[in-house]
Amino acid sequence: MTRRLRRVLLWSLAPPALAVALFFVGVLWPLPAAEPVVTGHPVAFVGATVVDVERGVSVPGRTVLVERGRIAAVGPDGGVALPPRTRRVDARGRYLIPALWDMHAHVFAVSPLLDLPLYVAYGVTGVRDLQSCPREGDPFISCPEDKRRWTREAEEGRRVGPRIVYTTSFMANGPGMRERISGVPRFYGTETPEEARAFVRHFAAQGVDGIKVYDRLPREAYFALAAEARRLGLEVVGHRPHAVSAVEAAAAGQRSVEHARVFLHEAYPGSAALRAAAGTERWREERQRMVDEHDPAMAQEIFAAFVAHGTWYVPTHLTRWRDAYADHPAVREDTLLRYLHPLMKWQLTEDLDATLTADSSAEARRGYRDFYHKGLELTGAAHRAGVKVLAGTDYVVAGADLHRELVQLVAAGLSPAEALRTATLNPALYLGMEREHGSISPGKVADLVLLDADPLRDIRNTQRIRAVVFNGNLYDRRALDGLHAAVRARARSGSVGCKLLWRFVRQPASY
After folding, report:
1. Residue 436 and which of 2, 114, 294, 341 are 20 to 30 A apart at CA?
2. How many CB atoms lie within 10 A of CB 187?
């Protein structure tokens, strides 16, 4: 009887033991990296129409020579001497633009598995990352040194990925933040001016470029944080905290404000009362009222403050589009979601469901849609008032969403040339890198995208990519197709699923 019972127990334990073993095999199983292209000789695009993003015009019949990672020459066809062994790319009937930048990206610890190659595959060779790990070794959010290492490897031809040229702190989000993540210092709560200053000093020591502020950061803590960041030579970027007006944030030196809702929250008669309710249960985003009672004069005051203080604006309209159409097949059955692992798609679906669960009424749905469309309208108004705009996605599908954000900006009233500038020249100006990036000129870094159609005629033509050049290395259509296929395969990989699950297990906190 004892032997029989022992056999039954062993057989009953075998399946879960095998499942656990297979799970950890998946966690530890090495995955080959996407193979970077290293072009060891000059490349010449012959017969190209070069898009001059600064003037917003196209110049046909140009030869662009790329050599040693730089644009060596730009001139009329037949007027550029080509070195021996130059690879000639027939660019007749095609359009050459500077490579694109996503100025509101999120690079996670798992991004090398899926996202980084996809950025390059979609012609996005530079990103500004808007989140850092809360502590070293965080299993989910990558740390500044990770991003610096991945960038070095990409530039040296050892990794497929974009330049991550800007990193921020973890979010300064006020009371309750420390309780949500174990093992971090008390000052992560950024509840007081003293804690806010300590928070800035902590991340300054990690070599970040900016301090990210978020919704629940208290008013006094925000101003102390901004002053300390200024003292240490760091920028303040991110959300406009609920307790601080947009005009005050600009005057305090906040370098960029993210998301179009800032103008809706701040330009209606209830905005002062809404700020006063920050941090309490009384705070509520009354979307329909913000739309119906919008005050253009208040909006113009905010625009003027942004212009006067040099505050950049990153609207991320796709975030509000997903809110507005959370119940629509265009969002839920988006074909680009094939690049996400099912676990990541599940997380996105959970967020969409939460939006609907909060209030699924027809009135609420209309409020979300009106809020989104009003945000588009206000982006156009801000641009016409002289506010400097950057294209950013807030990340769902790496690379691909940047192209769709450009479509959103044209819908907001920017011309295709103006929209293209928000993802090329404007990022270079924002970063102080205009001598190296942002346009097609001799001496600049050779980050380029060759298109099959004119983006100045239709901004959606940025999606018709024939070739990408990163740091002088040519990814032709065959190489790009290989990157797409590799990411799609990984999105279905059981090993990637195990790795993602293990990271979630190790970090159950909600950021």
Report:
1. 114
2. 19
Instruction: Give tens-digit pLDDT for 103-147.
Output: 999 998 888 888 999 999 999 999 999 999 998 878 888 999 999
Considering only CA atoms, give the Rg of the chain. 24
Instruction: Say which residues have a Cβ less than 8 Å from residue 78's Cβ, sequence separation at least 6.
Output: 63
Helical H runs in 60-155?
Answer: 115-121, 144-155
Closest CA to 507 of 184, 181, 169: 181
HSE (side-chain half, CA atoms, 13 Å) at 314: 29
* Average confidence score pLDDT of the chain: 92
Looking at residue 140, what is its pLDDT?
81
Compute the average pLDDT of residues 229-256.
Answer: 98
Question: What are the C-alpha distances in Å from 294 to residues 57, 288, 387?
Answer: 36, 10, 19
pTM for the full predicted model? 0.93
Nearest to 56 by CA among 486, 456, 503, 498: 456
Query: What is the band of 500 on the pLDDT scale with cuts at 50, 70, 90?
Result: low
Give the rounded percent of residues in the chain with a pLDDT score beyond 90: 81
Specify the 3-state DSSP secondary structure of 43.
Answer: strand
pLDDT exceeds 70 at position 510: no
pLDDT at residue 12, as a whole number: 63
Other C-beta atoms lying within 10 Å of the C-beta of residue 343: 17
Residue with tokens 């074909």: 335
Q: How far apart are CA 416 and CA 429, in angstroms?
A: 19
Alpha carbons 159 and 24: distance in angstroms, whole number: 26
Q: Token match 């980084």: residue?
A: 116
Query: Taking Cα atoms as reference points, which of 505, 499, 485 lies closest to residue 111?
Result: 499
At residue 506, the pLDDT reads: 63
Instruction: Centre a 10 Å sphere on the Cβ of residue 258 and count the other Cβ atoms it contains.
Output: 25
Encoding tokens for residue 446? 């050779």
- pLDDT, residue 26, reads 47
CA dist., res. 277 & res. 291, Å (int): 19
Largest pairwise CA distance in the chain:
94
Instruction: Spell 197-210 as b/e; 16+ CB within 10 A means b.
Output: bbbbebbbeeebbb
Which DSSP state fits 312? E
